[in-house]
């Protein structure tokens, strides 16, 4: 059963009107506590797993400049592309597992996870050419021959990580849907500690260089997968895992469609601000501007870890409550998390603006780069505010199963409105990086406004009914409580 809120009247799907929606401070606090219990470990997990690649780059940088460039380019371009696609494909489980768990159809969670494994392993095979032919791909994007060749060699060594992604993301969505976020958090923490030690041992102490970096990074991702699987196989995940089943191969096309919609939705968001650095590189004398934007994106990346945590939390809450037929609780959770995200975004924006004269020097010794970064801080602050709220609204969409709709909205807002506006402001009107970033922010503002309108007008009773139909259509009727 989904979590209860005794003071908040629950409205199951029984044909009645929604009635008045009254909220007390105590009810708000209880729902906030539920969200933080999910978001806190999810944020810690995101930071821990994000740090695996970041620390590998740090150790590689202690070996040499070429090693740093090879790991950085492979990690951000080749593995970054694969990460976005695989995470997006796996996010379909946030809808399906969450709603099935809320409906009490626990056995179906294991079936859904196995179906997702089949789809993501196939996706990993389709992505293999990107790794194999990484050098010519990187050269086509203007990277130097030396860096492209080194990054390409490292990409081949990192193929095991690609298949670890294929198993890891479905497993994590499977566990998150059951609110077992602390398990993932502890496993990620243990892996991070071991990763630091063995990175030092193999890369620096034994002098294995890039080979040591590949061994430790691959081993760390597979350790996460193996430890999570051991937990699931031993505990049976409270009935959600009942063993391997041929049902994993049933109705794969329906799964593929939802997985592709999830991938398109998340990748369009994931890559949007990354494009900012690429476009900035085409400005006249771009070196200082690119360095300044890179510093801002680094800070934005850490802020995004908070957003990822709340994205997961609200996705779990909405999918669980819709699956259980609790329309009012789903709606209430959206209100609470939106207010919380705005408050956190306001704090982040205030911190960025109040330290804009100082934080650039944490990343650079160049006065010119620091000055440009300070000038961009106002846009970074606005982005921090928007990017705390926007992923939360996307999490609502994932929990409700609106991935296909949001994918179309993202295409329109980001790539038909925001990106062209940025190019026009940056190049045609010669506002430079300020113009490019401002135009792209307008796309985020438009997308956020549209999501707010959609969520405000949503009939949550109807969404709960659709969740029940989705569980039945994809095998929920054969599930066991």
Automatic annotation (TrEMBL):
The UniProt record lists the keyword Transmembrane: yes
Keywords for the protein's UniProt record, in alphabetical order: Membrane, Transmembrane, Transmembrane helix
GO molecular function, one term: antiporter activity
Family: Belongs to the multi antimicrobial extrusion (MATE) (TC 2.A.66.1) family.
NCBIfam families attached to this UniProt entry: matE
One CC-aspect GO term: membrane
The protein's name: Protein DETOXIFICATION
GO annotation (BP), single: xenobiotic detoxification by transmembrane export across the plasma membrane
Topology within the bilayer: Multi-pass membrane protein
Transmembrane segments: 117-134, 154-171, 183-203, 209-234, 255-279, 299-320, 332-356, 376-402, 414-434, 440-460
Subcellular location, record wording: Membrane
Pfam families xrefs: MatE (PF01554)
InterPro entries referenced in this protein's UniProt entry, alphabetically: MATE_euk, MATE_fam
């Amino acid at each position: 059963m989904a979590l209860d809120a005794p003071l908040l009247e629950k409205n199951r799907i029984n044909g009645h009107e929604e009635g008045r929606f009254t909220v007390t401070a105590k009810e708000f606090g209880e729902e906030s506590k539920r969200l933080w219990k999910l978001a806190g470990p999810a944020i810690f997990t995101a930071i821990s797993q994000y740090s695996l690649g970041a620390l590998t780059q740090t150790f590689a940088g202690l070996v040499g400049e070429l090693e740093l460039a090879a790991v950085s380019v492979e990690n951000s371009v080749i593995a970054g592309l694969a990460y976005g696609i695989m995470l997006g494909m796996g996010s379909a489980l946030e809808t399906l597992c969450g709603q099935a768990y809320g409906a009490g159809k626990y056995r179906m969670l294991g079936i859904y996870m196995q179906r997702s494994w089949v789809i993501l392993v196939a996706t990993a095979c389709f992505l293999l050419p990107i790794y194999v032919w990484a050098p010519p791909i990187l050269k086509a994007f203007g990277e130097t021959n030396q860096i492209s060749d080194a990054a390409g060699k490292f990409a081949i060594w990192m193929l095991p990580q690609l298949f670890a992604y294929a198993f890891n993301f479905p497993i994590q969505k499977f566990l998150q849907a059951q609110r077992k976020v602390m398990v993932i958090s502890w496993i990620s923490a243990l892996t991070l500690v071991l990763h630091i030690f063995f990175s030092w041992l193999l890369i620096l102490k034994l002098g294995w260089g890039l080979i040591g970096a590949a061994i430790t990074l691959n081993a760390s991702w597979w350790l996460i997968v193996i430890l999570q699987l051991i937990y699931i196989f031993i505990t049976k995940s409270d009935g959600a895992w009942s063993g391997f089943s041929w049902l994993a191969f049933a109705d794969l096309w329906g799964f593929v469609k939802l997985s592709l919609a999830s991938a398109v939705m998340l990748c369009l968001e994931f890559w949007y601000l990354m494009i900012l650095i690429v476009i900035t590189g085409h400005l006249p004398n771009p070196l200082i501007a690119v360095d300044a934007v890179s510093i801002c994106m680094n800070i934005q990346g850490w802020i995004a870890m908070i957003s990822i945590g709340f994205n997961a939390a609200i996705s779990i809450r909405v999918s669980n409550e819709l699956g259980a037929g609790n329309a009012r609780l789903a709606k209430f959770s959206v209100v609470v998390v939106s207010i919380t995200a705005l408050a956190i975004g306001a704090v982040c924006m205030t911190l960025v603006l109040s330290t804009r004269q100082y934080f650039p020097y944490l990343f650079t010794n160049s006065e010119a780069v620091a000055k440009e970064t300070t000038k961009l801080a106002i846009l970074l602050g606005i982005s921090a505010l928007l990017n705390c709220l926007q992923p939360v609204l996307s999490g609502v969409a994932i929990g409700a199963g609106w991935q296909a709709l949001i994918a179309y909205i993202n295409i329109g807002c980001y790539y038909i409105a925001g990106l062209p506006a940025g190019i026009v402001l940056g190049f045609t009107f010669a506002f430079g990086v300020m113009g490019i970033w401002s135009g792209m922010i307008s796309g985020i503002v438009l997308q956020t406004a549209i999501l707010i309108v959609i969520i405000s007008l949503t009939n949550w009773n109807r969404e709960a009914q659709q969740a029940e139909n989705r569980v039945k259509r994809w095998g929920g009727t054969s599930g066991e409580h």
